[in-house]
Structures are given as C-alpha cells and as structure tokens.
Design a protein that fits this description.
single chain; alpha+beta; Peptide Deformylase; three-stranded mixed sheet; binds zinc ion
C-alpha cells in the first residue's frame, strides 16, 4: 500500500521520533508499505515520520538509485544510533522525498558506525561509507527532526530560499501522494 509522504514543512517532520519497543505484525506491515512507497517515489531511503508515523524506523535500498552502486540488500533499521563519525567530511548531492524536486550538495562525515536492530530484533553494529553512509545520516537526521536543507552551506541556503518557499506554498509538488505543510493531501 502506498502511503502519502509528508512535506518537510509539516510539523510531523520537526519532532524527534519515539523508539520502537517491540516488533509486531503492524510494524512489519508498516515496513512493507514504506518500501512500496519508497520504490514508487523513486527514493533510496525513507524514515517513518516521513509517512506520518512517530517511530524510530528507517528503510533503505541504495540499489534503487539510478546509478547501481553495489549489491547492497534492502535494509530495515529499527532504533538506529550513529555511534561514530569520521573526521573527514565529503560533499554529496542530496535530495529528499519530503522536499520535492530539490537537490543540493551537503557536507557530511564520510564514514560512520551505526547501531540498529533488524525486524528479528537482532542487533547490528556496522561501518558504512559512500552512498550508504550518506543515506543513513540523512535518514537518522529525519528521526531527530532535522531536514537536509538545514545542513546546506549558508550561501546555498540563501540561494535555495525562493524554491523552498514555493515548495512550502505547494507550488512545487511531486508525482506521488503528498501531504502539504497545512496537512492537505495533494495528488
Ligand atoms: Zn529525506
């Protein structure tokens, strides 16, 4: 089932999400729907609060990106925490399903160590680099109420202002179900 994605200007994306206490059938169904929604919208990562659900939960599939990076399987991350960031930072162009048709370069640490649980409540501690590190940092930011546009350099933020205003006003919309800053469902 495709779930509408919330605009970055909706309050649901400005709050910290709550930890997932246990895995049940509802959560598994939600994960399934999040993957379906992400693929439909041509995304490579989606956080639960982007579909209006207050849970510390992320789905990622970087093989869904246009350039095939490597054979990373789809990942479900429950209660993820980034434990280490490399000192080296790199610039990479990011986009976001909550910020339609907007892409901009962002500086972030190159490599991270992240701890999370999978759908069997098995704990994982992994080191990630490249695109995977980038997507994980972007999605964990969502769970902490942070949008990637807040991480733009000040000059890029200034340049982006008018386009972001248009997104806020609903003048730029995606071709997937989208809930605007005022809570209205746009088709
Ligand atoms: Zn995003």
């Amino acid at each position: 089932m495709i779930i509408p994605i919330y605009s970055c200007f909706h309050p649901v994306l400005k709050k910290h999400t709550s930890p997932v206490p246990e895995i049940d059938d509802d959560l598994k169904k939600l994960v399934e729907n999040m993957f379906e929604t992400m693929y439909k919208a041509d995304g490579i990562g989606l956080a639960a609060n982007q579909v209006g659900v207050d849970k510390s939960l992320i789905v990622i599939d970087i093989n869904a990106s246009k350039e095939k990076h490597r054979d990373e399987p789809p990942i479900t991350m429950i209660n993820p925490v980034i434990e280490k960031f490399s000192d080296e930072e790199i610039e990479y162009e990011e986009g976001c399903l909550s910020v339609p048709k907007f892409y901009e370069k962002v500086m972030r640490p190159e490599i991270i160590q992240i701890r999370y649980f999978d759908l069997d409540m098995k704990e994982h501690i992994v080191e990630a680099g490249n695109l995977l590190s980038r997507v994980m940092q972007h999605e964990v930011d969502h769970l902490n109420g942070i949008i990637f546009t807040e991480r733009l350099s000040s000059i890029n933020r200034t340049l982006a202002k008018s386009k972001l205003k248009k997104i806020q006003k609903g003048q730029i919309v995606p071709d997937y179900p989208f809930i605007n800053s005022d809570g209205k469902l746009l088709k």
